[in-house]
Specification:
By secondary structure, the protein is α/β, with parallel strands linked by helices. The protein folds into three domains: 45 residues, 434 Repressor (Amino-terminal Domain) (Orthogonal Bundle); 98 residues, Response regulator (Rossmann fold, 3-Layer(aba) Sandwich); 157 residues, Response regulator (Rossmann fold), CATH 3.40.50. The protein is built from 13 helices and 13 strands. α6 crosses α13. The chain starts with 13 loop residues before the first helix and ends with a strand.
């Protein structure tokens, strides 16, 4: 590909193409943006001149500036970038976002968050028309950074505040419902949960310990599980929370193994995700325990691996929630209710009769 003389990295301009083709700069612009307004002869001259000069077309940033929009939707992940591909729930959610982007003809820009001061700058410089923020902590500075852009933005599952709508399910009510199934007949229940805050420290807590939980998803699900236990006239101190640093099957297996081999092993585990629940089931198998006779286990999300494992779980459509978030951030017509439906799907890992959809939660 030829380059004009001078700086070998200099990008050819539209004016240079017009001069080489013997047409006006407006004709070159139309040749790329509105080809129906250009004659076949003029278009051929523009293409030939562009090829000779190595001109790739109008600069995307300049084109976006002229149109007044970037043509892309930003998704802010409070995680490393690979999380979008490694975590099944994040992948489902992003699939829903991408469905809408494809239908609307806009791009999808992932904005990963590292915890460094540069996060706010990364958000501010993102060339997008709106933001979808994946659930994060109450004190995450990127929330203020998103608000400061003045662009339309929504948050998935919380936190509330800063004028941004929150789309998701009622995590507390859902946890209370599946907790009733998980803890049926239990004497030593355990919740296998998500991190409390952005430090992502491992903890083992009891239900009577006051503790700050910066992640609203963790907080609301823990409150719901505790509701299920205490409403059955059990003391809060008898319910434990094993805080996992990451949502991964190996973390669930490791933490559950330690507790099952301890002096006070749980006889029921309610996990905040299917990944953690499946890890607990691995730990139970390794310990020679029968599920659900010796250990009842429940998950959350009804992922593709839940049904083959017979896992009782909390079903929700993260793909639908992702699509809802995308439509709202792009200013498209969307459902009025911000809260989505959920249901408990009872299978063979709990002590209740094997029925499906025993409890529903409406939007």
């Amino acid at each position: 590909m030829n380059r004009p003389a001078g700086n070998p990295k200099q990008r050819p301009t539209m004016r240079q193409v017009a001069l080489a083709a013997g047409v006006s700069p407006m004709t070159v612009s139309y040749a790329y943006s509105q080809p129906e307004r250009v004659s076949a002869e003029a278009a051929a001259k523009v293409r030939a001149a562009a090829l000779k000069l190595g001109y790739p077309g109008p600069h995307p940033a300049a084109r976006s500036l002229r149109r007044g929009r970037a043509g892309s939707l930003g998704v802010v992940l409070g995680e490393r970038l690979s999380y979008a591909f490694d975590d099944p729930q994040a992948a489902r959610f992003l699939a829903g976002v991408s469905d809408v982007c494809a239908a609307e003809g806009v791009g999808l820009t992932l904005v990963p968050i590292t915890g460094a001061p540069s996060d706010a700058q990364r958000v501010a410089q993102a060339a997008v028309d709106g933001f979808v923020v994946w659930t994060t902590s109450d004190d995450d500075p990127v929330l203020d950074a998103v608000t400061d852009t003045g662009l339309p933005a929504v948050v998935h599952a919380g936190p509330h505040g800063r004028g941004m709508p929150v789309i998701g399910i009622d995590d507390r009510a859902a946890a209370a419902a599946i907790g009733q199934v998980a803890f049926a007949g239990a004497r030593r229940p355990l919740v296998l949960g998500f991190p409390l805050d952005r430090s992502r420290t491992r903890h083992l807590l009891t239900g009577d310990e006051p503790v700050g939980m910066r992640f609203p998803v963790t907080r609301h699900r823990w409150e719901g599980f505790r509701d299920a236990w205490t409403h059955a006239d059990h003391p809060a101190a008898d319910l434990r929370l094993a805080v996992c640093p990451v949502n991964h099957i190996s973390e669930g297996e490791t933490f559950a193994s330690e507790l099952l081999e301890g002096s006070d092993p749980p006889d029921a585990i309610a996990a905040m995700s299917d990944e953690l629940a499946l890890g607990a089931m691995r730990a139970a198998a390794r310990a020679g325990l029968r599920v659900p006779d010796d250990l009842a286990v429940t998950g959350w999300d009804d992922s593709d691996t839940a049904a083959p494992a017979g896992l009782t779980t909390l079903a929700q459509s993260l793909r639908e929630q992702g699509a809802h978030c995308a439509r709202a951030a792009l200013g498209r017509p969307t459902r009025a209710a911000a809260r989505h439906e959920w249901r408990v799907v009872a299978r063979t890992t709990t002590r209740r009769p094997n029925t499906t959809g025993v409890t529903d939660g409406a939007a």
